[in-house]
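Researcher: Here's the sequence for the chain we discussed earlier.
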Amino acid sequence: MSIFITGGSEGLGLELAKVYLRQGFVVGVCSRKSLTNEFIEKEIGEGKGRFFQYRCDVRNRSDLESALRQLNEIDPVMMVVANAGIDKRKPLQSGFSHYEDVISTNLMGVINTIDVAVNLLCPRRTGRIAVISSIASLYGLPRAAPYCASKAAVNVLCESLRHELKVSGIDLTVIMPGGILTKMTQPKKLSPFGALTAARAAEKCARAIEQGRRRYAFPKPQYFLFQCMKLMPEWVLSRLFKKVYE
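Model: Thanks. This is the structure I predict for it:
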């Protein structure tokens, strides 16, 4: 049985692929860029499983479906992980031109991934889909409106689909990581509660998926902070965000 992961060329997606390779699974990843043979040999060569990569954009449903079917022909796909996502944080003065790219990748990319996964898994009436959302989906952060909005939409999307998928024998897990040390997050100021390495975060994700969790958010201190932000007075939030973004 094989596992298909979108956005698997770096960060959390790549580390998640390594986790499953160490467990002996056949793993296929897709991303907008291809990994070099030298990189694969250095970073992935020690895994017990087999690794395959496909170059495609999750916004393109036909390319995504083609990649998934290619992996399925090598070894039947048992799980699909919708991990691909981007974050472009800019002040309001920069305009809204980047919103479409973020939302189309983070939301429509997930919809396309679930769509092709369902078409493959439903006839078997078994399988698993995992979607990587974010703790940032719980509260709208300044300069991150398209990212927070797209991840919040993903949460609600999965809540709606979970029950229908369950009837078809497919389990759906939503993972909401907090600060993770990746190329996408390193230039930004992360939570004062600390960020996890991508490798450690991947282990937590894999465990939650294996346990069949409906929704899993981590680290807990960051999750607690975002929940508290919903209850904070406006003046407290204004001071907090001013300190972070000034």
